[in-house]
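Hey, quick one: can you model this chain's 3D structure?
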Amino acid sequence: MSRTPVPRYLEKHQSGNWRVSTCMLPNRGVVAVYEQGPPDAPPLFLYHGSPGGTRGSWDSLARGLADDFHLIAIDYPGHGMGKRPASGFRADPFSFDTVVEDAVAVLDAKGIEKATLMGYSLGGIPALLTARKHPERVSGLVLCSTALRYPRLRSTPLLERIAGRRTHNSHGEQNCSTRIPARVLGRLDEFLRTSVRAAAQAELASEAFDARPWIGEITVPSAVVISGNDSVVGEAAQEELAAALPNALTLHIPGRRGHLAIPFSSPSTKRAVRDLCLRVSSGLSPSLNRAGGGLH
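Sure thing. Here's the predicted structure for all 296 residues.
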């Protein structure tokens, strides 16, 4: 992995417990790579939700995973510390395929042949796409608060206007700090660095995603974490995913946190998800617990 000077948009970034390094991916540009845990532990690659980035989705749960896994993550283009266009140039349209290929390139740079993939919310999309496009690189899947497909959003006309808008800050884009109240969003640093345009394009890209025709092709050990009272990705959609994945384990998280059950995970959720990840990464037969379980 080639180390490069830190780009301006990464300066003074608050990385919390993460080790953050930059690397040049051949023909793909500079990315910031987040890591926690022992480098010789089983690799667990994390795909975050949107808007925001790695910290907003995974800071909390990582505290329950870092003792047992080598956690690796990147932010999507235009999100958090994700890739930016050169000043004065407009970014390419957001694509989950780009996210997938960036992630595989990071695994190459780290010398990791296979990893368990974990996706939260919209992060389930690149996790599933990686398992489909690069099955030889995937040892298991853990999908949290996500679905096989996403319905058309009621706010789509607004998103389309934002996604196509030319804006002009120092990165050539408007960022989320001017659109979304910071007190609502939590991990402020990365949300302030996320462009509205990239976040809107990610939401629109999710509407075109539908794994139903090919989900049966995925045969690696898998698990689905279902967040109860989820008003973003309903429980029915999460159950549909669990039923479609061959022999998937399931874990139900009850309570009032709904879609935020992973970003603001309780101690019991951390323990249960850790145990689930250990089981998936070890390759134990998922059929031992097809019906899954829950937290009480």
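One thing worth noting: The chain has a mean pLDDT of 81.
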